Hints:
Elements (H helix, E strand, L loop, with lengths): L4 E5 L3 H12 L4 E5 L2 H10 L4 E5 L7 H9 L11 E5 L4 H9 L4 E4 L4 H11 L3 H9 L1
Parallel strand pairs: 1-2, 1-3, 3-4, 4-5
The structure holds manganese (II) ion.
The site of manganese (II) ion has 5 residues, from loops.
Amino acid sequence: MVGKTVLYIEDNPDNMTLVKRVLESRGYFLLQATNGLSGVAFAEEQDVDLVLLDINLPDIDGYEVAHRLRHSSKHALAYIPIIAITANALKGDAEKALAAGCDVYMSKPINIRELWARVEAFLPSSEEKSQQNEV
Ligand code: MN
């Protein structure tokens, strides 16, 4: 079974390592981008099923990344799930992320159970999918 591909756009290596471990343990494949522009390029060039998006990035910020994905000439990106990961829980940031085109947001520090729940809500893991198929 080929795992679902998640693109994580994140400049913090500790978060990247954590998310990679957590998602790969559930059978997802993680593509890694460490800045906004390479993240947009990855999403346009690769077969990606979901985007995890840090907001504070070294080049363009996550809001701009979400905007570019939603307006990309690759039409699938208009509908791809985007989960924003915001550094601070200020209400304005979350609203800004949603306004930019993100579907949901999580705040840092990353909670592993919340991450699984958020990702699986959009992309059921292979185990869950096979269980659903048996019903
Ligand atoms: Mn960051």
